[in-house]
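Table 4 source record.
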Amino acid sequence: MVSSIKSIGVILASVAIISACAPDGGSDSAAPLEQQRLARGGELYQKHCASCHQTDLSGDPEWRTPNDDGSYPPPPHDSSGHTWHHSDQVLLEIIRNGSDFPQSKMPSYGDKLSDDDIGAILEFFKANWGPEEREYQQRVNEQQTQARGMRHVRISGAALRSVEAGMLFPGNARNALFGARF
């Protein structure tokens, strides 16, 4: 009985992943994923990211508990984490330049990965998010673009995170939309 339930769960998960990655986007209104870029992103993730964030994007099991030095372990990049709270530009900046948060030990990968490589890794992340997380993150991207007024203006990751916080999280609006998942 337990193995039947697990089998059904695996089948349902597979159907969800396939429909989320369908060229027409399935029922997901977020942008469709680019399949070649997604495959390359998976390869790059395994090579550069999985040693800290785990091969299945699950991160360190204790990612919410600070280390003795005050830093936090690597977070998950699937729906259970907070990666999807950030715009593509913020994520690109963090991966390229490392984190500017004192609580993070995220190193810089700008000398190892091009912006296109990082974009492919982001596609891989998105393929492992649920439709709600993908739609939410797409809105983050759209609002950030509107806040900047121009698509190609570069500003710091810290400034972009400030824009995200001010535009998307007034009061408990985010909590009402997705519950208290942080």
